[in-house]
Description:
This protein has helices spanning 5-14, 39-50, 83-90, 92-103, 105-116, 134-149, 159-166, 185-198, 266-269, 310-323, 368-384, 403-421, and strands at residues 27-35, 55-58, 74-75, 127-131, 154-157, 173-177, 181-182, 202-204, 211-215, 218-222, 227-235, 252-260, 278-281, 287-291, 297-302, 334-342, 349-354, 357-361. It is an alpha/beta fold. The strands form three sheets. Strands 1, 2, 8, 9, 10, 11, 17 and 18 form an eight-stranded mixed beta sheet that branches. Strands 5-6-4-13-14-15-12-16 form an eight-stranded mixed beta sheet, sandwiched between helices. Strand 14 (287-291) and strand 15 (297-302) form a beta hairpin. The chain is globular. The termini are far apart.
Amino acid sequence: MDLKPESHGLWAATAPAPPETSALDREVEATVAIVGGGFTGMSAALHLAEAGISVALVEANEIGFGGSGRNAGLVNPGFWLPLPDMIKALGQDAAERMIDDLGNAPSVVYDLVAKHGIECEAVNNGNLHMAHSPGGYADLAARCEEWSKRGAPVEMFDKATAASMTGTKAYYGAMIDRRAGTIQPLAYVRGLAHAAVKNGVQVFTQSPATSIAHNGDKWTVKTPGGQLSAEKLLIATGGYGEGAEQARHSTVPYFYFQCATKPLSHNILAEILPEKQGTWDTHPVLRSFRLDAGGRLIFGSIGKLDAGGGMHKSWATRRMRSMFPQIPDDDWGEAWYGRIAMTKDHLPRLKEVGPNGIAIYGYNGRGIGPGTVFGRAIAKYFETGDASALPFPFTPGASESFVAIRGGAIEFGARAFHTIDGWL
């Protein structure tokens, strides 16, 4: 099944093919069953297989169908929360471990890319967090100071330097984090899948989990055509869970769209992001922009490109051209969008769903690094049985309230802002 242009856009058009898979049509047994074929599920499957543990993975659609294949492709360290807020929310010990693990997440991603020869347009030249206002600049300066205390290679740039680094004068400055970079996200998750299959993982696509149950000493995952039995279970469906109740999580629907230009000329590319960093900004209605390997500028923001969502694309056209007047007035080559699984405290969730069964979700737009690192940590937990291998403490009882109302408010606010901002 091919991924659609409106959901996966440029990524579907330029990613190498996934490994050959089929739907689960029989009874299969493994040591570990994984539900969800995104960054987390594939990372866990690969690391388990490398440890000699048998794994079978079921994906409701295709590899990378959810947020992993619609991601902006920014490989950033950390989470959205400032470091002091993480410590306050998690406690000193748990927070320091997560800060350390996620601070090293980009290197884990790029090491996997190199080890397995994954063709995913990997660039590791750092990323730029752009200040949309003086207040945004002050916030970034505080974040820069916190990371600097931990020895991270971060630095603040003034307005002029930020303009020379990006090709736009729209910002008050920026923070560069040289640990970070960009990838083609769908290509990356497909590359993880190739490596997992090569190491013996059984991957079944078009196989939604219709029921998940623990019977005696094993988990049973049923799909429309087959059944998977395993001693241990990981549910890694993120914001795209469907079918069985355990695969569906309580998160706030937060949509993000991206538009890509046609390939730009070498003259224009010499001015726009000449060092190929990815960017995102401090505005409450977030914007991001980056380049792909083909020289396309990819411009994104909050919003859903469904019925009525075309105004987001119109805004993106006007805003991008005001920021980058050097770009020709061509139509966008591609436009697509996806859902981010948000939580009220902007931290992920880790839940026990039964004996030797866990679910993890709620990456709040930071899927690549956390998905890769947390998948590896869960693999180690299943391998050793040592709870200290888990990436952070369990979050029992955590749930979101009024998700439809909150999600609707986010989309309404984005549409209102884009309508007004597009004509300023």
